[in-house]
C-alpha cells in the first residue's frame, strides 16, 4: 500500500469506509479503550479536533480490546459512552485488533511506517499515528503523550 488512502475499514455502524474519503487532510489515528487509564485523553483529543478540524484535521478513533480487556462493549456501547461522557464528535470506527494474527491491515501498514520505541507492536491503548496530507505516516506517539503535547506537530502539518 502506498498511503493510508488505500485502506478500507469498518465504520462504527458496520458499513465499509474508504480512507480515501480523508484524502488531503491531516489525520491522527488512535487506538482507544473506554476503560483505560488513558481514556481521559478523549477530552484533549476532542479539544484538538474542535480547534483544527476546520483547517483539514481529522481524528480517526479505532477502539481496541486487546489490552487488559479495556474496551469490552459493543461498537454501539463504546460510541454511546464516548459521545455521552466526552461529547466526542470525531469519527469512530468499529473495534479492531492492532496486533497479532487478526490485526487490521491498516495497523500492519501504520506499524511498518513507524515502528515505535518497543518495535513494531502497539504497546497499549492511545498509541497515536500522525499522517500528513499526502497519506504518509510522519510520527508515532506513545500512549503517555497527551494530545496537547502533540499539537505543535499537528499544526506544523496544517
Task: Briefly characterize the structure.
With 158 residues, the protein is of the alpha+beta class. It is 25% helix and 18% strand.
Q: How does this structure look, described?
A:
- This protein is an alpha+beta fold.
- It has one domain: Glutaredoxin (3-Layer(aba) Sandwich).
- 25% of the residues lie in helices and 18% in strands.
- It contains four helices and six strands, in the order βββαβααββα.
- It has helices at residues 41-52, 75-86, 105-113, 151-157; strands at 8-10, 16-18, 26-32, 57-63, 128-131, 137-141.
- The strands form two sheets. The chain has a four-stranded mixed β-sheet, covered by helices on one side.
- The two termini are 24 Å apart.
List the helices and strands and how they pair.
Blueprint (H helix, E strand, L loop, with lengths): L7 E3 L5 E3 L7 E7 L8 H12 L4 E7 L11 H12 L18 H9 L14 E4 L5 E5 L9 H7 L1
Parallel strand pairs: 3-4
Antiparallel strand pairs: 1-2, 3-5, 5-6
